[in-house]
Amino acid sequence: MPPGATRRLAADAPGIAEAGALLREGRLVAIPTETVYGLGADAGNPAAVAGIYAAKERPRFNPLIAHLPDLAAARREGVFGEDAARLAEAFWPGPLTLVVPVAEGGRVSDLARADLGSVALRVPGSRLARDVLAAAGCPVAAPSANRSGRVSPTDVDHVLGDLDGRIAAVLDGGPCPVGVESTIVACLDGPPVLLRPGGVSRAEIEAVLARPLAAAGPAGAAPVSPGLLASHYAPRAAVRLGATRVLPGEAVLLFGPDAPAGLDEAALCLNLSPAGDLAEAATHLFAYLRRLDAAGPATIAVTPIPDHGLGEAILDRLARAAAPR
Ligand code: TXA
Ligand code: MG
């Protein structure tokens, strides 16, 4: 790990050029996307990719998503069948990752793919991210820019709180507008499989495919996402889901206009969306979990959240935060 402080780059032409140059040199740069901040490295440079795991203290070599500036660049890395092409055209640039067979001559290293015959590709919706990717001129592997097991970062201070001194730079793009990670769909043999709910809802994807997405089944039946560990996004506090009554001293994560019983006994509460808007709730999810956790409660109680639209991704992240560790 290079010693010294992490540089904070501005979201302007010199900052973008510098981020691209650092990535080309094999350094680690955190970049804002519309979902969360990613910890970027040249996906074709195994030493740079290994640096991601070291900086995150990620215990295992999970495969990483390679980020590209456009569909043409993505087609050099992966083979797009009919379903993948349809989804890419409908949702890129945007919060969708497609797992497709590796293309011959693709540059994403075996390490970034964890030696799988498939590769995860994403063209981010953030214009700033695409500008950095174009400046880098290489596929950029980027998991979320947090230390392993921590809550994903949706602004620069979250990134620096976890990774200051461990990475060369962070590009400051302000808060991330979507707030939960990309939806991951595998388009390999057979019907497309939903590997992770995320920023594009299941219903939107199924409308484009004109059929239901398959669920990730038991190993062997369908591709599973090796990185989808049960406990993830873990705050220090225990997380209690579906709370309709607050217990004294709990921190509370609210959704919607209704106050649960006992709220006046809460240590602290934040509302993801007083109006009950799931997109607004997604934007606030990780930042509010961090803020409640920083107050040091034993438990964070979360009031019920609907499971449609972006609610599926929000509940997926909260279930991981609540999972036993
Ligand atoms: O929104 C996002 O997707 C963010 C931003 C930075 O782009 N990135 C992100 O990356 O969430 P990460 O590393 O936290 O999640 C990548 C997921 C992991 O669960 C991994 O197992 C899965 O993608 N994955 C990557 N390659 C795969 C493959 N070939 N087959 C199946 N799953 C794969
Ligand atoms: Mg992550």
TrEMBL record:
GO terms for cellular component: cytoplasm. GO terms for biological process: regulation of translational fidelity; tRNA processing. Residues 13-200 form the YrdC-like domain. L-threonine binds at T35, H67, R122, A142, S182. Its EC number is 2.7.7.87. It holds the Pfam family Sua5_yciO_yrdC. It is found in: Cytoplasm. Its main location: cytoplasm. Gene3D superfamilies: DHBP synthase, Threonylcarbamoyl-AMP synthase, C-terminal domain. GO terms for molecular function: ATP binding; double-stranded RNA binding; L-threonylcarbamoyladenylate synthase; tRNA binding. ATP binds at R58, N62, S144, S152, R196, Y233. It is an enzyme of class 2 (transferase). It comes from the Bacteria. Keywords: ATP-binding, Cytoplasm, Nucleotide-binding, Nucleotidyltransferase, Transferase, tRNA processing. It catalyses: L-threonine + hydrogencarbonate + ATP = L-threonylcarbamoyladenylate + diphosphate + H2O. Required for the formation of a threonylcarbamoyl group on adenosine at position 37 (t(6)A37) in tRNAs that read codons beginning with adenine. Belongs to the SUA5 family. PANTHER family: SUA5 (PTHR17490), THREONYLCARBAMOYL-AMP SYNTHASE (PTHR17490:SF16). This is Threonylcarbamoyl-AMP synthase. It comes from Methylobacterium variabile.
